Structures
1.
Amino acid sequence: MNWTKTLRLASVFVVIFIAIILSFPLNEKINLGLDLQGGSHVILECVDTPNAPVDNDAVNRVLEIIRNRIDQLGVSEPVIQRQGAIRILVQLPGVEDPEAAVDLIGKTALLEFRNEEGETQLTGAHLIDAKSSFDQFSRSIVLIEFDKIGAKEFGEATKNNVGKVLAITLDGKEISAPVVQEPILDGKAQITGKFTVESAKHLAILLRAGALPVKVEILENRSVGPTLGRDSISKGVKAGIVGLILILIFMLIYYKSFGLIADFALVVCMILIVGALAGLKATLTLPGIAGMILTIGMAVDANILIFERIKEELRLEKTFRASIDAGFNKAFRTIFDANVTTLIAALALFYFGSGPIKGFAVTLSIGILASMFTAIVVTKIVLEVVAAKFSSKALL
Amino acid sequence: MDLIGKKKFDFIKNRRIVYIISAVIILVSLISIIFQGFNLGIDFAGGTLIQIRFDKSVSITEVRNVLSEFNLSRSTIQNLSENEFVVRTEKIDSEQRKEILSAFQENLTDLEILRVETVGPVIGENLKKLALYALLFAFIGIILYITMRFEFKFSIISILALSHDCLIVLGIFSLLQKEITISIIAAVLTIVGYSLNNTIVILDRLRENIKFKTREPFENLINMSINQSLSRTINTALTTIIPILALYFFGGNILSDFALALFIGMIAGTYSSVFIASPLLLEWNKIFKIHQKGIRITGKKGKK
């Protein structure tokens, strides 16, 4: 082996090595999309009501309150973004109960105390604290505390309704209807509804973060539970492994020693794709896994193109070495043109697609680039090294 | 000549039969698309999708009975296994959804919510527009690229072959009333890229042959080019279809329709690259009376 060949071979192994370093350990380095790790993608829109028209200030306050609620829910790395004038995008990765979480962000959460006639006595506007707790029968309750003004109003309301029902409602729906025993003047109260530990906690969060100033509507909600996410990963991986093994076998049977080289290139290609995904901090989605599986087929495509060309050159009685060079030169332009058109399609998907589809476009593009690299660089070097040791007859 | 002697199939001679086959398939596709239309998924039509797994096996009728209590009997219910269902309804809010789910729990058995998707009409319209833009963008980008690298007529023929493939996929989806979702649009776009890949390999061969074998009649050059790349075309089609089949059988229900669209598209794409694209080039030359490299095109099989 001469100098340059050794150098090129070494650089290929360096690239593979870097890709492996980048992607290890897999479960930490690969960013999973909402459809794989579970979670919610929600688009909210602020809507006008007669009492509360939407303006810029209101949208900003909605944004802040929602951020507050999500922070308290303890979601790691949520995305909360304003989209255009009146829309808000919320993404909550990895929440155990996406349904409940979506419920929490879309609620207006207007707390009201109403007398038996249904008249509002006071609202939750003057709350300073709310927390979930248990009463002496270990039922879940929510403890609330008013500020000075609120305490005064609450004192009035309870004084006027002694012996009567003072209903507590959230967004017009009754949560509990206690009978007032005596006036409460210290501004502290407890709400005893039919709570679970979880729902008491959520109500406390809602009350602490405050009511939304305007009504919001959920335009789009895509939530995946953690079970389905895990399921999708294992099924996708299974499909990928089955596809990969079948292709490895096919190439080995059909192209023999050449097939072995193509198989090596294919495995390298897969390592590079995973490395690139990790290195670019790209998000792997379920369609993204499909994109990777698709590249398995496309990656051997370039190799097949090259091998068929080399075979043709050999038929013209050229030497092995000359056939390899001619085969690569002739195949290169075809491989390039064919892959660029797929890249154009992937670009269109990336530009116009949403979350999971963007993931597909990303893995497909990375896959195309990696397969071109492995076919043109890796396969070529391996072939050259092999050609120096064996005759073409021994290989075909 | 040596290479002509190795020719296995005469694609040019039999091209009329191929045109008729394609015309029939496309006609059926168009009729289905026009009269039956698409079964648009909630991505485009708006609505709510709930995927649930019951603790015990449950029948479709039982699920439908519960839904009809909520005036949702017109929903589509698909059973993925005996205890896993996908329910598609008109757009319902989270309160209604909770009521329905607790009705399932009371009347049937305990369940787990696997997936919930709600898309409002505004977003649906928006996604429709984006899907259309993506298709347009890809088509225009490809025309530009191929015109730049090859010739304008190559790009027109590639686009014809592409439209043929897309129409067949969409037609079969309309015929089977399979749901059109964003993933299906992604599959169609992937097919656009891939089908072109095959067409380009053959056209590239043709370009090369035109350059070096100036004395051959155009018909022979086309036949030669298709035959020379045939084993490559078949092998790469196989290596692409194998992983797609793996995806279809093992990839789970969310990806199975996506894999199906890819499968149909790959078959159509390979077929159109071999049987449609290059023969169309001959028709083009005839229509515009282009005499490739000075050789007269007679319409009959060329003589040496």
2.
Amino acid sequence: MKRFRVFLACLICRTARAVLRLLGRGGTAMPGKIALKVYPGLLAELGRGVETVVITGTNGKTTTSGMLRHMLDTAGQAYLSNRSGANLTSGITAEFVTNATIFGRPSRPLAIIESDEGNFPAVCAALQPKVILVTNLFRDQLDRYGEVTHTRDYLARGIATASDAVLCLNADCSLTASLGRGVPNRVVYYGVDGVSSDREPGVSDAPHCISCGERYAYRRHTFAHLGDWYCPRCGLSRPDPDVAAQAVEPTAGGSSVRLRTPDGLREITVALPALYNVYNALAAIAAARSMGWDPDECCDSLADFGAMFGRMESLTVGDTSVQIVLVKNPAGCDRALEYLATRGDDVLPIFCLNDNLNDGTDVSWIWDADYETLFARRHYERIGVFGLRAGDMRLRLKYAGADDGTIAVYDTLDDLADAVRNAGKPVCVLPNYTSMLAVRDKLSALAGGGKFWEAN
Amino acid sequence: MELRICHLYPDVLNLYGDRGNIACMRRRLEWRGIGCTVTELPLGVRDDLTGYDLFFIGGGQDFEQTVLLSDLSAGRRENIRAAAEDGRTFLCICGGYQLLGTGYRTADGQLCEYTGILDLYTEGSSDRMIGNFAYRLGAESGSSVVIGFENHGGRTFLGSGVSPLGTVLRGSGNNGSDGTEGVRYKNVYGTYSHGPVLPKNPAFCDHILQGALERKYGAARLEPLDDSAETAARAAMLTRLHIT
């Protein structure tokens, strides 16, 4: 009977996916939803025998998953992965169905699975991953998770279902590192040793000791609440990282990193700019080592890993070169704004803000992001805003110091596309999640690219 | 003219972009040539609060809020009470608003005592009230329509010593049952509205600033500003909430 239900669930899921694609729709979540209705235990059934790494955390999930996929691609290994950002249980189930035989047997030995924080307990319980990677915890979608510490509790619940999994945790994020205390799992910490920012921590998402409530102090601070933290009262402190960046040198379009692992020291090249991508690379390396993959090959492959799906992606529309940088919470947004401020050339920045369910319906986080510093450093002749909450975006920019007279509100995607085509200079788009999907779809069609679920 | 703004507990009560309210007040003063200083008073810093005209207290996480109570009982509560009774202006959002009340009863029956500065109390519940919402300010607060975003599990009930800030038009407000939103007592304004509340509600912002300036200088006139960006952002949300 179970056999039959698995078979039936898989069949329905495949059919629904095929029909949606014929209709030209992405169809990443719905087929999985139906399949789980038919057989709720489907994901656990399909995950049996597959060595899985599950990646979660607020920022960097998709880039880090991409790095892990790139490592396997380079090594010529077969795997399955939920690549178009379908990181809910339904999307993950659909991915496993696609990669199973019609009788529900896995056809690939490895899986790289990106999980949304809310679905993480269910995903872990079903897949029993070999490695769990948590990138960081920042404020994000508070309308959904309530508070950052609630998000942490979701992750702890997931970890508790998978005591055999190796945990790879960001030592520099006090909230993430706390997940490694008092659990039976083997824990691998990663962190950045060789960088110290001269900026104060500012608004912190985790200012106080999770154990005793005292304010954390920092021996070194990289960005947001990340760094070499410790509690002056109870002595809780950042765990020593097993995988660490001892020194980081920015290069054209990336970073050169002196990497320390239990195997010793070596130099690696990270082909994406900014320090947060160094964290993503360390996360990927820690996970790859824990999976038992060849550490040198994995590190080498990072040197030619390009941008991902709206997370710093470049395309050309007509004569205009366009860069898309996904921003969806204050910490990630600040990194993107810093990047924008330091770009040497004159650009047309376009800020896009939607408030659909997948974005979080509360857009107030834009007021926690530091647009003020951008406008203190740069003046733009023209600025574009777009999205369901374009009015809020315009207001944020106005109060951050932008001249309201320079802000153009694009009411439709066609208006935005026209502005891009006629920009006469490079365009940098900073959209949140669903506005990214819409803008990317529109611009990549004009650029002759594929639709988003075909992207790598 | 100048307003001295004090941001209380920016290190603890700093959720949901509420600091945007300070940016908003500062700009709207500066655009009119009125001076503005902002002093952040984090946990543990002693200050008798007499050097400020306007206080801002934001919302926080439950975990962080418990850290706060010991600081409040170490003298800060009396300073806040004195400043409020003295007619100084307070804008308190969500958790900061709840803290002014007598206490918080959690969903499982535990009682947490708050400052008791205002006659109101809060009960926890497991289902949060979340979403865009709107309310009309009472006449003493200018009668304009305020739009914002609420996200709270606590249900707040007002005692007889205080007035509601406004009447709910869309959403839940204080408790989802009695149609009130927020609190008004002297120049103290408490609301559940994030958003942050002031940028999209310039009339409310100016009302608060005007009150603080009048207390300090006797009379004050705020020059009108070009609020076309504010009006456009308001119009989009008012339409969505079906408010004409």
